[in-house]
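RECORD TYPE: protein structure
NAME: DUF2848 domain-containing protein
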Amino acid sequence: MLTFTLPDGSSVAVEPQVVCNAGYAGRDQAAVASHIAELAELGVPAPAVTPSLYPISPYLAQQTDEVVVQHGRTSGEAEWALIVTGDTRDDVLLTVACDHTDRELEVHGVAWSKNASPDVLGTAAWRLSDVADHIDDITLSAWVGHGSDTADTLIQSGTLGDLLSPNYWLDVLAERKLLREGTIVISGTIPMVEGIDQFADSWRVAMTDEATGATIECGYRVARMPEPIG
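PREDICTED:
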């Protein structure tokens, strides 16, 4: 069960039923195609269609401060998330998210890599209807940490206008009869700053409504599992 605190101090609890991660979801699909070509050179298989939508296990939608991983080549992605709390578009919350992804597994299948680690969600949310008229201006930023002795480094910065809109994905949900309580869609991500080590000890993502100054954050440390035997 996930619980979200709203600006008026009330809270909404939702049990995830269907969770989907969007991929290649930039609003500029020409730039997306260029990015896919770059990834192909690194061995990441190209999607059959763009944008893509990958179902993941519902238990992977988590509100946690620690993500446990199997090796050192995993990283987060700054995203937003839609939380459907009822059967209409008026029953949708917006929060911040960080999609932690296994980059080693990604070269074998993006859908597999998305199921290897949690999607970390914020504990606060806004009603989508309350920010819909300026949604594109909301900013999205991520910072990574490398050890306790160094300051966090900005690795992603953009706006929700860089990504396909929440309404685009609500249309997809409605078409697939998934616009119902417990459905969660996570947006896909914005580009990373070149030259920053994404394989970090911690991730922090912030989504800021520039109209009000309100910010929703999520953050977590990355912990390695013990080495396997056998």
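COMMENT: The mean pLDDT is 93.
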